[in-house]
Design brief:
Layout (H helix, E strand, L loop, with lengths): L1 H21 L2 E6 L3 E3 L4 E8 L17 E11 L6 E10 L3 E5 L3 E2 L2 E2 L3 E6 L2 E2 L2 E2 L1 E6 L10 E9 L5 E4 L8 E15 L2 E14 L3 E5 L4 E5 L2 E6 L4 E5 L14 E8 L4 E3 L4 E10 L19 E3 L3 E6 L8 E12 L3 E2 L5 E7 L4 E7 L5 E3 L1 H45 L3 H15 L7 H11 L4 H15 L8 H12 L4
Parallel strand pairs: 2-9, 22-30
Antiparallel strand pairs: 1-3, 3-5, 4-5, 6-9, 7-8, 10-11, 12-13, 13-16, 14-18, 15-16, 17-20, 18-19, 21-23, 23-26, 24-26, 25-26, 27-30, 28-29
């Protein structure tokens, strides 16, 4: 009985082994379990005994941590002996421990695997790679900036990417590469930044992948960075917002080429400039619907010039300039219409309406203009005739004041200083004050009180009438001249 039982056990084990050998198998083989950001990881899927096409396997479970590229497929045999191989290149999207989730095909699954992704390095130094998304809950048609920044000790490296991708539900405008240099702990680094301005066209949850960014050194792509998959929750615009209303900050400015005065019957130009931040140029609102000709004004078709200046900091900055030719037909004020501008402010979530006031412009015909010029010349001549004597008197007083101060500066005797002060009083229109006290009273009434000047005048009187020597110190004359030249200031 014991021998029979052992024989039955052996037969059962042999049958189970045969069944297991005949069952379809799907296995994953990783060339390495460690890599660095920007470098690919080679993976191979092996299918044995499966009739399902291995190229139809769903690779979406790996989409978040990796960008997957199918590099080759081979198959041989048939039935239970059929084998298939699918070769893959896996580019990690971020640093850290990433999980390769199980894949399934025809009811057969692979086992989960883990991969350690290290930060990238160049010549032994670590590369700083940062990605940034300006917002994940934008309004419909609102700008979203997605940028990548790389800092490297290689001062001459570059970043490259493909042309603007076509992404369903989005308008994409590529942003040019921005180049900077920084110094950290005495070491100079090069910084490169590029990105995309995304404008979601449809509301709801949106998922998108952006093109790879290549790290180029010496003309060779050393690494390829794939940005993380972007998930946006796009808010729908209110139902009352028309399709032509831009979403973003919009402003306008207007002026005329001729300033404030125009000629009747002469062609003039009204320049209107509309600028937008985060708005493409062809989305800027039109402003010409309210400009029409009337009995006093002839308006002609306008010329427009559009341009964009995208960068990785502010995104898309657009401008459209309208050159509107018009011709005043009558004298008087030119009645240019006020222009209305509408845009949706994403910060407040409201429709904003602003009015652009027209410039104040007057039109005159040639005869009226000549008459106005002649009258202005006559008034100017009459005013000059009336003001000429006063100007001449002012000039005479100014010359007399300078002469009195020059004489004071060279005086060394009290009498000479006193005479120079008298000349200065005459130049100021005070007459000839008999005493220094009266002279100072005129001074402080004309300018302002100056205790230091009054002290100098008292000292001058003491030296002149005192028993001591009458010669004045050089410093005294220089100080008095400085106080009078600054007029007490």
């Amino acid at each position: 009985m014991v021998a029979a039982g052992r024989l039955l056990c052996l037969l059962a084990l042999w049958a189970a082994a045969c069944v297991a050998a005949a069952a379809p198998r799907l296995t994953l083989h990783l060339e390495h379990t460690q890599t660095s950001l920007g470098m690919p990881l080679t993976a191979t899927l092996h299918a044995v005994g499966m009739t399902a096409d291995l190229t139809r396997i769903d690779l979406r479970p790996w989409r978040e941590p990796f960008h997957v590229i199918v590099s080759g497929h081979s198959a041989r045999g048939a039935g239970d002996d059929a084998t298939q191989t699918l070769r893959l290149q896996l580019y990690p999207r971020r640093v850290g421990t990433l999980t390769l989730a199980p894949l399934a095909l025809a009811g057969v699954k692979t086992t989960a695997s883990r991969v350690m992704v290290q930060p990238p390095r160049f010549a032994g130094a670590r590369l700083a790679v940062q990605t940034h998304v300006s917002g994940r809950t934008p309004w419909q048609r609102e700008q979203v900036l997605v940028t990548i920044q790389v800092r490297s000790p290689d001062l001459f490296f570059g970043l490259e990417t493909d042309a603007a991708p076509a992404i369903d539900g989005f308008r994409v405008i590529p942003l040019p590469v921005q180049r900077d240099r920084v110094r950290i702990d005495g070491v100079e680094y090069a910084v490169r930044r590029l990105g995309w301005a995304l404008f979601p066209l449809l509301p709801g949850k949106q998922t998108l992948e952006l093109p790879p960014v290549r790290y180029v050194a010496n003309g060779i792509a050393r690494r390829v960075f794939f940005l993380p998959v972007q998930h946006l929750a796009v808010k729908p615009l209110p139902a009352y917002i028309p399709p032509q209303v831009p979403v973003g900050a919009v402003s306008a400015h207007a002026d005329t080429a001729s300033g404030d005065l125009a000629r009747v019957g002469h062609l003039e130009f009204w320049h209107v400039t509309v600028t937008g931040r985060g708005v493409p140029a062809d989305w800027l609102p039109p402003l010409l619907s309210g400009i029409h000709s009337d009995a006093g004004l002839a308006v002609f078709p306008a010329l427009s010039h559009r341009g964009e200046q995208p960068d990785t900091v502010a995104g898309v900055r657009a401008r459209v300039r309208y050159d509107i030719p018009f011709k005043p037909l009558s004298n008087g004020r030119v009645k240019l219409p006020a222009l209305r501008l509408q845009y949706f402010d994403p910060d407040s979530g409201r429709l904003v309406t602003t009015r652009l006031s027209p410039p104040r412009l007057f039109a005159l015909s040639l005869p009226v203009l000549l008459s106005v010029v002649a009258l202005a010349l006559m008034l100017a001549g009459g005013g000059a005739w009336l003001l000429l004597p006063r100007l001449a008197a002012r000039l005479r007083r100014r010359r007399a004041r300078r002469a009195a101060l020059a004489a004071l500066r060279t005086s060394r005797e009290p009498l000479a200083v006193r005479q120079a002060l008298q000349h200065l009083a005459v130049a100021e229109g005070w007459g000839e004050p008999p005493t220094l006290r009266e002279w100072y009273q005129h001074w402080q009434a004309r300018f302002r009180p100056d205790p230091q000047l009054w002290g100098l005048l008292q000292k001058l009187s003491q030296i002149r009438y005192g028993p001591g020597p009458s010669a004045l110190p050089t410093t005294f004359v220089e100080t008095l001249h400085r106080r009078l030249s600054h007029r007490g200031g």
